[in-house]
Amino acid sequence: MGEAGLIELIRRTVRTRGRLKVGIGDDACVLKDGTVLTTDAYAEGVHFDLAYMSFRQVGERCACAALSDVVAMGAEPEVLLVSLCLRHDVRDSDIRALYRGIEAVCRRFGCEVGGGDIIAADRFVLALSASGRTSRPLLRSAARPGDFVYLTGFAGLAETGRLVLKHRLRREGFAAAVRRHLRPLPRLDVASSIGSAIHALIDTSDGLATDAAHIAEMSRVRLELDASAIPVAPATRRLCRKLRLDSTRFVLTAGEDYELLLTSPRVLPRCVGGSMLTCIGQVRRGSGLYAVSNGVTGQVRERGYDHLA
Q1: What is the pTM of this model?
Q2: 60, 61, 62, 75: which is closest to 27 by C-alpha?
Q3: b vs e for 131-151, b when ≥16 Cβ sit within 10 Å of the residue's Cβ?
């Protein structure tokens, strides 16, 4: 049934009891006092690859991904809990390096590791739970007709870096892409600086098309993306040519960029807090996700990564 179908099954199975301000269906849940809670699991071979990543880089990457969900709710990260499923061959020095990577990211955002759990397993897996706090949660369901659609950074840059590392290509010209894959720092600067101007917000962990479709569905609106306006780095175009990939489909489906996709009624600056911000479309009345390319409007059916597909 895919991830979306499974989430809907879970949502229909459990019951609300009045303790949550925001429950299942957004980047994180929100308690009535403004506490934001989220959890994610990261498995070797799915979310990271030790064939080309160090344990410190795994720690940095997974910490960035976990905290991104807190930032995508308009919250300031506070605490990170780390649970480890460890293979028997993981050494003490590996764990030290892993936590040094996690700590480096926590230090960057002023949050701290508060504990976790450790078990033995036949596969290396991390489960990270993050918390934060906000007085005004920013939700996927708050886009309104007339809003502009904005994206931070470049679409598909992290996946570009992953493929460069996976295929062991020369890194010349791909340094920024590799860096975005290994250390996708959450765009807290953007969320903090223009939070009051944001209606809907989500981070692009599942791919631009999937996450834009989430906003459209949950806000009950139609999102129209301008295909020519989507920011694509020269490195991504070069990689697509090299690997013979369709660049438009690539940037729509590439996941784990951890950029912010947001809607706002305002015309926003092109740079916020040191991060690039690009207007890539508009919100209209209706439903679904559409793209305008060469004057032709068509429904976007491409979707990003689905663990259960």
Answers
A1: 0.94
A2: 75
A3: bbbbeebbbbbbbeeebbbbb
Count of CA atoms in the C-beta half-sphere (13 A) of 263: 28
Q: What is the CATH number of domain 19-133?
A: 3.30.1330.10
- Reported as a single tens digit per residue, the pLDDT across 44-84 is 999 999 999 999 999 999 999 999 999 999 999 999 999 99
Number of residues that make up the chain: 309
Domain residues of the chain, as ranges? 19-133, 140-299
According to DSSP, the β-strands at 222-226 and 288-293 are parallel
Domain 140-299: which CATH number of 3.40.50.10090, 3.30.450.20, 2.30.130.10, 3.90.650.10: 3.90.650.10
Tokens 């049934």 correspond to 1
Strand segments (E) across 146-301: 148-152, 201-203, 222-226, 260-264, 271-272, 275-284, 288-293, 296-299
